[in-house]
């Protein structure tokens, strides 16, 4: 028997750009799915940095703006042309919209059903951070047992998952963190060496006996990128996948020549989730690893849906030690 769907729901909406306080609890209509969409009752919504950028006006959005693209929930209605999920299925996605709400819609081919045995809150930690870690480690630069890797922000949500994946592959992992507490977290994930940001280039040189690392994964950006390049061995790769300290300014590619024929790439999730097959492959491996105990998800903390402003402050104050979720 299908559950009754209300006409209205609670959602966190911003009428204008600004600080976290612009996110206000609103009573809005429950969206109606098109023939290709699923209507999902939200169980947990992922909170991500991109939403703080959207809320603050860094990116243009339409108002009133309800943030969110990542969530786990139960399908309560399905369009006539849907084929991948049915009413009653529990799904996960990072490709929805307006998920800071009690219900959301998502295209059927952009969501995956959860396997039996996986906790919904664990699953909610994977569609964005897990898939990011997966494509970085498996595709952008396919890490192997012979590699030495530098990963910035090793105590973060992506970092923690990526370190575990790389250690499962047999790589040597050097991580950077900012505090003693975060060092303990990175070591618990399996990092072989944990450094502070100050002088990390010289420390990497010492650890590798001057050879450099095969790849550096940098989500910090402005404050670390130049020094990150200095840690690479000849023909090494710098993977810039974020800018928590600011964006890297225009760069003279000729410098890559003199520094050892280096590679630099700036990946995005869209390029690594180009079709349904790729989505199922990445999420499937993540689910399998969690269920087999090879991958431990780090849920940092949860906030009630109506406290989304507090969740944004928590992210912007760099307090996170893993995934942050909103619970309706």
Describe the structure.
The chain is built from eleven helices and 15 strands. With 328 residues, the protein is an alpha/beta fold. The protein has two domains: 8-125 and 298-327, Quinone Oxidoreductase, Chain A, domain 1 (Alpha-Beta Complex); 131-270, Rossmann fold. α3 crosses α10. It is globular, with a radius of gyration of 20 Å. The mean pLDDT is 96.
Number of domains: 2
The 3D shape can be described as globular
The ordered H/E elements are EEEHEEEEHHEHEHEHEHEHEHHEHE
CATH superfamily caption of the largest domain: Medium-chain alcohol dehydrogenases, catalytic domain
- Report the end-to-end length measured between terminal Cα atoms: 23 Å
Discrete helix count:
11
Average pLDDT confidence is 96
| CATH architecture identity of the largest domain | Alpha-Beta Complex
Q: Assign the CATH class of the largest domain.
A: Alpha Beta
Our Rg estimate from Cα atoms comes to 20 Å
Contiguous low-pLDDT stretches (5 residues minimum) are none
The largest sheet, given as strand count, sense and whether it forms a barrel, is: 7 strands, mixed
| Helical proportion, percent range | 25-40%
The count of strands amounts to 15
Structural class: alpha/beta
CATH fold naming of the largest domain: Quinone Oxidoreductase, Chain A, domain 1
Report the β-strand fraction as a percent range. 25-35%
Record keyword descriptors for this entry.
single chain; 328 residues; alpha/beta; Quinone Oxidoreductase, Chain A, domain 1; Rossmann fold; 7-stranded mixed sheet; globular
């Amino acid at each position: 028997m299908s559950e009754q769907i209300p006409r209205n729901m609670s959602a966190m909406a911003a009428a204008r750009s600004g600080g976290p306080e612009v996110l206000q609890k609103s009573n809005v209509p429950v969206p109606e799915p098109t023939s290709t969409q699923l209507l999902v009752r939200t169980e947990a919504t992922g909170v991500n940095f991109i939403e703080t950028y959207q809320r603050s006006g860094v990116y243009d959005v339409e108002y009133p703006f309800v943030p969110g693209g990542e969530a786990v929930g139960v399908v309560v209605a399905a369009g006539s042309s849907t084929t991948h999920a049915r009413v009653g299925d529990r799904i996960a996605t990072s490709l929805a919209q307006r998920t800071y709400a009690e219900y959301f819609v998502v295209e059927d081919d952009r969501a995956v059903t959860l396997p039996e045995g996986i906790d919904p809150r664990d699953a909610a930690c994977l569609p964005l951070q897990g898939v990011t870690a997966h494509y970085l480690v498996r595709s952008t630069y396919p890490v192997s047992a012979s590699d030495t890797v530098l990963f910035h922000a090793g105590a973060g949500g992506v970092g923690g998952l990526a370190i575990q994946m790389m250690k499962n592959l047999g790589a040597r992992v050097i991580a950077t963190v900012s505090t003693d507490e975060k060092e303990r977290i990175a070591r618990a994930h399996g990092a072989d060496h944990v450094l502070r940001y100050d002088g990390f280039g010289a420390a990497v040189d010492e650890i590798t006996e001057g050879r450099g690392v095969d790849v550096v994964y940098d989500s910090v950006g402005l404050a670390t990128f130049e020094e990150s390049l200095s840690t690479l061995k000849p023909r090494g790769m710098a993977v810039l996948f974020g800018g928590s300290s600011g964006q890297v300014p225009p760069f003279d590619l000729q410098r890559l020549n003199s520094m050892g024929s280096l590679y630099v790439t700036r990946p995005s999730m869209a390029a690594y989730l180009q079709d349904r097959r790729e989505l199922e492959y990445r999420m499937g491996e993540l689910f399998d690893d969690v269920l087999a105990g090879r991958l431990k998800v780090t849920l940092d903390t949860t906030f009630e849906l109506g406290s989304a402003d507090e969740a944004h402050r928590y992210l912007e104050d760099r307090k996170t030690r893993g995934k942050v979720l909103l619970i309706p």
